[in-house]
Amino acid sequence: MEKIKDIMTDDVESCSLLDNVYEVAQKMKQLNVGAIPIVDNEKLVGMITDRDIVLRCIAEKQPPSSKVEEIMSDQLFTVTPETSTQEAVRIMAEQQVRRLPVVEGEKLVGIVSLGDFAVRQLTDDQAKEALSEISESEAQH
């Protein structure tokens, strides 16, 4: 059975609680990513997605200089490097998330996204299933 450590991205860029929303958005643009983990003293404390920026900052007329902790998601669903890919897909589908931070204790060591599953032949069906479930739920909102 394949483990998350076999497919995760382990070179993950992050921001800190000292960064503001503008700096996070700039990093997203530079890296061409839709989510940035927020780390405080090596501890994963939150995630900010492009959607968080739109809904919690721009739509609420908050300035780009807003603190990241004002808009980040702090209720996180995480996995460990030893988590099975099947369990990770189940969590993604159940929690309606496209990315999972990978942690050892509270330390961020990687990230896994639906795209990581899609590039693997063995888990392609898992990715399709999770994406289908996530997309169906989003359509209901």
UniProtKB/TrEMBL annotation:
SUPFAM superfamilies recorded: CBS-domain pair
Keywords: CBS domain
Residues annotated as transmembrane: none
Domain CBS: 8-65, 72-129
UniProt-listed SMART domains: CBS
CDD domains registered for this protein in UniProt: CBS_pair_HRP1_like (cd04622)
InterPro entries: CBS_dom, CBS_dom_sf, Diverse_CBS-Domain
Signal peptide residue numbers: none
Name listed for the protein in its UniProt record: CBS domain-containing protein
Source organism of the structure: Bacillus aquiflavi
